[in-house]
Design a protein that fits this description.
By secondary structure, the chain is an alpha+beta fold. It contains 15 helices and seven strands. It has three domains: 309 residues, no CATH class; 92 residues, Signal transduction histidine kinase, dimerisation/phosphotransfer (DHp) domain (Helix Hairpins, Orthogonal Bundle); 155 residues, Histidine kinase-like ATPase, C-terminal domain (Heat Shock Protein 90, 2-Layer Sandwich). It is flat. The termini are far apart.
Length: 618
Amino acid sequence: MARFVRGEKASLVVVTIAVGVAMITGGALSLSAYKRFRQSSVQRSSAFRLQEQRERIVRLDTVLATSARLLVATGEQRWRDRYDRFSPILDRTLEVAAADTQGTPEAVHVEHIREARAQLSETERRAFELARNGRAAEATAALMDPDYEEARERVARQAARMVPSDRSFLRLLELAGTLERRTEDVTTDVRLAVTTGERRWVARYREAAAELAVAQRSAAAALSRTRNSGLLRQLASLRSDLQRVERRAIEAVESGNTQAAREILERASYDERSEDYQKRIGRLSERLRAAAEAERRSERIEALANIGAICCVLAALLIAWLYALRTLERFAAERERAELALDQARAEAERRLSAATAELQAEVDRLRQVDDLKTTFLSHVAHELRTPLTAIVSAAKILIRHHEKKPEVVPRFGSTIVVEGERLTRLINDVLDLVKIEAGKLQWQKERVDPWGLVQQAAALVEPLAHEKKRELRVEFPSLVPPVWGDRDRLVQVLTNLLNNAVKFTNEGDSIVVSAEQDGGMCRFTVRDTGVGIPEEDLPKVFEKFHQVAGQPTDQPKSASTGLGLTICREIVEHHGGRIWVESTLGEGTAFHFTVPFEDGVCDDDAPASIEAVSAAT
């Protein structure tokens, strides 16, 4: 045995050394992979943002250029409005790009773009001024000047150098921008060709249309494995219809009949259909951008998976080393465990026997307690049922004997029958509710409930009784309270029981206040009165079945209470995960509080600390 243990120790040393070397190597590899992952993740995020900015810059530059040319060619105000709307957006985009690239090599390209854009803006403003003065030909020449075209090409070149499109998700973003730009170019070139009749716009249209067709086919290929076939078919069909109209209009322009070309576009509702096509292209571009984002996330997940694989290998090596260590400890402790096995078995047997005996005794005690509770409960119920039944029977006998000779007793004893009958009904309903709750058979309809609505509903139910008894009933909401999660009807039942008790145990002219406020992660409801109060010795017993406080208000008979209302309130509140308690000073009044958790157990910490109290006096 000793020789075996020594051999195990030697093996453990070898394994420990091997595992240590492997873990150091793996840790170095994992750290290196993580650093590369962090660096590439930052680069991908930066490249994704720069690519979006690049496409936005080129797209907005195209929109401004086409708007300027259409304004000069047609003189329509909508193109000037369009130019004025998008020009500030381009300026803000350039400012954001300059801030994002500050201190990086890309900052030079952004600065070149801003310089070129300033030159273009100056030319466009000069053209607008010429067009406004009736010199449309000079304005058109300014916008077709080689310097203007060279500045636009410089914007495109510098934008392309902002970020290399060497990743698939960047190519998808570039494709989305190309679709939007070429769609703008096609519709603009058609309008300019029809408006001016110049052949150069025809050539530009054909070039832009060919590039748009290539870009649309590329988008279809990129999204072929996604659920976009319906949109792609709609775009293909709509583009085919627009292309037929454009070709007919272009043929009319080439034959020198620009009036016929304009009529072709008007009959085909070209403006409306081209706007619809541009909106659908915008949706396709959004889906391409979503695909690019998914591709970027996929690359990130793949890198994380590689790091995870290295960590798993390290964890496996660590587990193997720990297993070898535990093996040696197990063999070393085997003899000791064998010697202690008999003692442990004997102790375990004694423990189980003692535990079984204790469980049996506890069960016997519990059954006895249940039997005692059942007997007490039935005794209380029988007593409470007998009292109103005796009153009803007595009143009925008197009515039978004297209703003809003494008709004046009919209202009094008839009222007694009604009152005691209602009391009997309340008692039976309370007993049924309590039995269902304790048996777990009560149906709960939990939902999102507004505390203010609960308080208002309960107050509205009790208000007629309070008004009749000449009590002042107020509703106060000292602060905004988020919704709670509970059974609306049962929570209203709790508030109604507490308010009815407050009306019973107050005198004429006393006030009753019901309120709700935030208490940590719970909503605390309070019913406070200025009535007779509860003696201190009765406070621990107020929620017990059939318990009635000795002190009574001077104008309320004791028989009006069943003694089960507060017990039911406690069961309902505890079922909701809250608690209920009472605070009272004899002769000064009583306050019942209970709490209900907010919806999802989350309190609204962003709610204002307080608002002007909302109160209503009856």
